Amino acid sequence: MDKKFKRTLVTTALPYANGPVHIGHLAGVYVPADIYTRYLRLKGEDVIMIGGSDEHGVPITIKAKAEGVTPQDIVDRYHKIIKESFEELGISFDIYSRTTSKTHAKMASDFFRKLYDKGEFVEKTSMQYYDEEANQFLADRYIVGTCPHCKNDHAYGDQCEACGTSLNATDLIDPRSAITGNRPVLKETKHWYLPLDKWEPALRKWILEEHKEWKPNVYGQCKSWLDLGLQPRAVSRDLDWGVPVPVEGAEGKVLYVWFDAPIGYISNTIELLPDTWETYWKSKDTRIINFIGKDNIVFHCIVFPAMLMAEGSYQLPENVPANEFLNLEGDKISTSRNWAVWLHEYLRDFPGKQDVLRYVLTANAPETKDNDFTWKDFQARNNNELVAILGNFVNRTIVLTHKYYKGVVPAAGELTDYDRETLKEFADVKANLEKYLDNFRFRDALKEAMNLARIGNKYLADTEPWKLAKTDMARVDTIMNLAMQITANLAIAFEPFLPFMSAKLRGLLGMEECDWNRLGSVDIIAAGATVKPAELLFEKIEDSVIEAQVKKLNDTKEANKLKNFKPEPVQENVAFDDFLKLDIRVGKVLECQKVPKADKLLQFKIDDGMGGRTIVSGIAKYYQPEDLVGKEVCFIANFAPRKLKGVESQGMILSAENADGSLVVIGPQGEVVPGAQVK
Fold this sequence. Notes:
Elements: E1 7-12, H1 23-42, E2 46-53, H2 58-67, H3 71-89, E3 95-98, H4 102-117, E4 122-131, E5 136-137, E6 143-146, E7 155-156, E8 173-177, E9 185-194, H5 196-209, H6 216-228, E10 233-234, E11 236-238, E12 253-255, H7 257-272, H8 277-282, E13 286-291, H9 297-311, E14 326-328, H10 343-349, H11 354-363, E15 371-373, H12 375-405, H13 417-425, H14 429-438, H15 442-463, H16 465-468, H17 473-493, H18 499-509, H19 543-563, H20 576-580, E16 584-594, E17 602-607, E18 613-617, H21 625-628, E19 632-636, E20 642-644, E21 647-649, E22 652-653, E23 655-657, E24 663-665
Parallel strand pairs: 1-2, 1-13, 2-3, 14-15
Antiparallel strand pairs: 4-5, 4-9, 6-7, 6-8, 9-10, 11-12, 16-17, 16-19, 17-18, 19-22, 20-21, 23-24
């Protein structure tokens, strides 16, 4: 740590308490923050990690209304799920609180009032939509209408989720209230705005000149916002759920959630350290690090710092190491579509495998660009890396120590040149890990830690102590002592990343403490110390387990298709006489087979009551030929014959297209004689 800093305050983005946490949240914010905090603790530094649930805002009120419960019921439910899930995954918050606490309500109210009394807000009136039946102003998410861009008829007042376009509520065609369904009216309302444009020069200097070391994705997004020019931003809302605006004439108004939520970092620190919290927020020798996701960069790098500048007594963040997005099986994670791997469900489906998820999310972290999580990669990293490299080396070392020494660590004898080469390979592990961790390059740091296990595996494979045991036990003593030192190093190196594995390994080795300063040493385990019998640190994950998770996602995808299915628009009217020209008949399938060299085509022999006919249909993807034999189908009998892949087709079998794109053959409900006309 830079010598000018005596302590570090780590904050993590407050997860929104209208649903559980998923792997995208973990990869973007919570796993890297926990790695960093554990690392600083290992070094003996003064560090606290602050977290909590974001519990105000419109989406929570919408969910509560849909379920017929109160907003407090919603946030109580999800705060509990989120908090317990974090604890089980080993995310080591010093406090995990919430923005509905009394401490937060007072802090947020006082913060607003101080800025108000200093004249830091601009008061504006504007026209906003109002529902006369519900007798309330409508937040953007309470207004739905037709998107002017893609014509989706259920776009929200802030965004169309069909085409992704950002909107203003007044952009919507035929707007209506999501509460009553009525058309809202425009009505004048008053709000307070934070003039971000006033702080633009200070923000530009602070970010673009003084923090060029920030990650390129963070620095670049900030520069884009600043180059566009900052505009005043409302800090209040017409709503009944949130922290009331503490000034006269503000009845029915609350603090806007984006203003309210980041103050939660401060209020949660007060809750943790009521007497000394200011040391972590206002002392120049404190370093503040905000861990956030890609979608929160503007709030934590521009809006929240502007709030702190306006208040005047707080330190600004030293770094905001935001990650990009983690996708899932090639598709963007979406809570509304249930396209996610939820943490609480993972912990239920994979008991005792917290470190596997932590490892995979770190190894595949979206540090500088979006990345993809797949269940196959999850399985491969567990089986090929955690089991085959890390677990294998540790297991072999302890098993051999028990086989030859009854678990007592032997003393090393004279080192060979190869021993010295091996020692040299991991002599710099501490310096390399610190270089990566200090610069928030957690993926590279994890590779460095895993490289220790690779060195150990290669050392055992090359020296083959099981062969030397027959002729040269003195040499085996040295080999096994060195292998045991590498094992002890692994227990230290992996503690920030895999805390459960590290604790288990330290227990096996009898290591009472995890001393970061000894990382890279070759005397961590004393000769004569006794280690416990080997236990598997990781186990293989079988194909069936992964297939079940993939099926779960595929089922979700199919359910979404059905839920979102919209029939194609009805085509233009046709004359009744034109319909009568189609001769639709019922036929019975006598034979059915695939057309050679045509993946989509099936060839039917149909009993049409008139001597039979051949029809070719493009439904091979949805049916096995034998499943259709004996079925009655409807077909158009008076189409002119045409050849498909060399087979003459004498009609068209009728099918309906389902929501998922599959085709279903149309046939009569009861038994009908072949050749009967459909009228």
